From TrEMBL:
Organism: Pipistrellus nathusii (Nathusius' pipistrelle)
Coiled coil: none
Keyword line: Membrane, Transmembrane, Transmembrane helix
Pfam families with a match to the protein in the record: Tetraspanin
This protein's record includes keyword Secreted: no
Name of the protein: Tetraspanin
PANTHER family: LEUKOCYTE ANTIGEN CD37, TETRASPANIN
Taxonomic lineage of the native organism: Eukaryota, Metazoa, Chordata, Craniata, Vertebrata
Length: 281
């Protein structure tokens, strides 16, 4: 009897402490999302994104933080107060979250070809409509950021931009977003348009791209632009970070399974303990 009580007390406080940690973590994520919304200008200059995609990411962070806080609060209160209804709800939400993650993993694995085609079509459509559709400005800014971070240009190659009527001047020379600009190349080899001069920093180097009419004249035969397409760069990034991605997914899954096991064990054994205690009174 005493050993079982001690075991249940240990499980209760372990569940409480871990959920308290995740409640604090969710609070930090929520505050960070709100901070981005409030202080947009600083983050725009830091990450290179403009207001619209940055606002989307900030709202996603805020919602994720609220959900994490709510789930962790259920676990904290349910464990500390030994409330079976809250523990059962906590277990059910964790089970739903775990099942959703498993389903997404299966869909991504089985529909990999379809997903790649959808992403390819979306990116090529974004490139074709670059600076022509104001409603796609968020997608354009996000793609500029991808090109800047992965040091790539276009989907297959920089030639993708030559097929955009509004950017191509002739068969041999065309304009590309300045996010394609190879910062390691000498500045003398670059021929930026007047619209891209606002992207120059005080030191004379090209600053991080922002959404504007910033276009740079490029010759595909020179090293002015990144020569590799982003499709290959994304494949390389996924290959190089595959172990980390799988490790994080497995860690999150095992953590959820542990919390579910502890919560359902505590929930199922509370009545037995109370019944035994009542007999000894």
């Amino acid at each position: 009897m005493a050993a079982q009580n001690s075991c249940l007390s240990l499980i209760k406080y372990l569940l409480f402490v871990f959920n308290l940690f995740f409640f604090v973590l969710g609070s930090l994520i929520f505050c960070f999302g709100i901070w981005i919304l409030v202080d947009k200008t600083s983050f725009v200059s830091f990450v290179g994104l403009s207001f619209m995609p940055l606002q989307i990411w900030s709202k996603a962070l805020a919602v994720s933080g609220v959900l994490t806080m709510g789930l962790a609060l259920l676990g904290c209160v349910g464990a500390l107060k030994e409330l079976r209804c809250l523990l059962g709800l906590y277990f059910g939400m964790l089970l739903l979250l775990f099942a959703t993650q498993i389903t997404l993993g299966i869909l991504i694995s089985t529909q990999k070809t379809l997903l790649e085609r959808k992403v390819k079509d979306f990116v090529l459509e974004t490139i074709q409509n670059y600076h022509s559709d104001p409603e796609r400005s968020a997608a354009e800014e996000s793609w500029d950021y991808v090109q800047f971070q992965l040091r790539c240009c276009g989907w297959h190659s920089p030639q993708d931009w030559s097929q955009v009527p509004s950017l191509s001047n002739n068969a041999s020379e065309f304009r590309v977003p300045c996010s394609c600009n190879n910062s390691s190349a000498t500045n003398d080899s670059a021929i930026p348009d007047m619209a891209s001069l606002s992207q120059l920093s005080r030191g004379g180097t090209l600053a991080r791209p922002r959404h504007s009419a910033a276009l740079c004249a490029a010759d595909p035969k020179t090293r002015l632009t990144y020569g590799e397409g982003c499709a290959r760069s994304l494949q390389k990034w996924l290959h190089n970070n595959l172990i980390s991605i799988v490790g994080i997914c497995l860690g999150v899954g095992l953590l959820e399974l542990s919390f579910m096991t502890l919560s359902i064990f505590l929930c199922r054994n509370l009545d037995h303990v109370y019944d035994r205690l009542a007999r000894y009174r």
